[in-house]
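Same chain as my last thread, 231 residues:
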Amino acid sequence: MKGRRVIESFNNAISGVIYSLKTQRNMRIHFAVAIAVLLVSLFMDFSRLELLLLFFTISLILVTEMINTSIETTIDLITDRYHPLARIAKNVAAGAVLISALNAIVVAYLLFFDRLNPLTLSVLVRVRQSPAHVTFISLILVILTVVVIKAFTGDGTPLKGGMPSGHSAVAFSIVTAVAFISHDIFALTLTFLLALLVMQSRIESKIHTTFETIIGAVLGIIITVLIFQLM
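reply #2:
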């Protein structure tokens, strides 16, 4: 019962993200920019501190945009008439988003300006020699893609049902990453069997259809292959 409440809390939280994506144009822009920045970061030799700063900056602008949406929705619920205090509240919330966006521009300048040189073979080699970084970025991009697709299909709840299966997408993204990193057929076989168990559990519990899990698996594989190999 307690576990179900925790899952429901996650569902509600992700529903808030999906609502923001579906209704707020700026949120969609922020998501698109975040994905683009994460892709570009694959080619940068960032330190742990720089990566931490990058993820914090992305999170900050997404969080402030969601808070702004929450405040605007609450005010609209309370009153549909013009009131100077309501205007101030909305302007202050919008100002918070503006500050976080300006901060993101400054951080992007400091992190990327000296590194945005033409892509060379040495950069590609450096990416291949950083499997942990690449794998982490792959998983984040797979999760973001699943959330965006669910936001626009509007089918099911974030952690239960809908197109595609996020669990299958992440599971097969991990399988693909293991294939690139380990070059070990035994390790690949074990992770593949675990991914199949994830698919089977989603189908058996009737959370997803077979088609939804297959689409999720294909999505996870394609995104991870693109990141590891086709760049």
